[in-house]
Amino acid sequence: MAAAVWVNRMSRIGAAAVETVEVTKDYLVGHMTYAALKGVSLRIEKGELTSIIGPSGSGKSTLLNIIGALDKPTTGRVLIDGVNLKKLREDQLALLRNRRIGFIYQSFNLIGRLTTRENVEMPLIARGIPEAARQNASMKLLKAVGLDRMANKRPTELSGGQQQRVAVARALVTKPAIVIGDEPTGNLDTKTTSEILNLIIQMNRNSGTTFILVTHNPEVAGMTHRVISLRDGKIEKDERVRRIDSFG
Fold this sequence. Notes:
Blueprint: H1 3-8, E1 18-29, E2 32-44, E3 49-53, H2 60-67, E4 75-80, E5 83-84, H3 90-100, E6 101-105, H4 116-126, H5 131-144, H6 160-172, E7 178-182, H7 190-207, E8 210-214, H8 218-221, E9 226-231, E10 234-240
Parallel strand pairs: 3-8, 3-9, 6-7, 7-8
Antiparallel strand pairs: 1-2, 1-4, 4-5, 9-10
Helix pairs in contact: 4-5, 4-6, 5-6, 6-7
């Protein structure tokens, strides 16, 4: 089966959005081995809005990169929609990232020479989507995040909150099953954090997209369905949260 067709059909009935089984990750630092993750097992269901918290060095970003197929575990298994990532070729992993997973970064990662609309279109270019369809999809998402009137502006002409809205639109433009956010509100003030989190809550509720957010902000974590606390590379606590409909 062609890789692109395989990725589009990969979802398995009853499978979790994400599952990790005894995942470890070791790094060689000089002549010493540093264990960033020490047997992490978790299951995140489809449509969950989950936050991962913990002190610096606890393994949050390492776990996020492994879930997002940006890095590979030293031992253990990672399954996306029931598919074991260890069994995938590099081209299949690349397609998985492009078609099944969206990424939101703390530093926005927008391309300065491109317009807002062109930044949102970037994942669709990688998929070979025709220009007219790309423009239609990007404008629909920009309207959803309240920035359709800023479509021809460049990132330097936008506020931090507006840039993060563009980043959210870019993450969602491929209609991914899972969106991963590494401190998506970390560079934002309280008001803008509230706006971005409410946008994520709305997108999660309306589309059923699974969101996994790393955050240092306990108030942000408290607005998600579930909070997973990491410490020293292990899950210290895994709690369901009674959340309200909006933040701030």
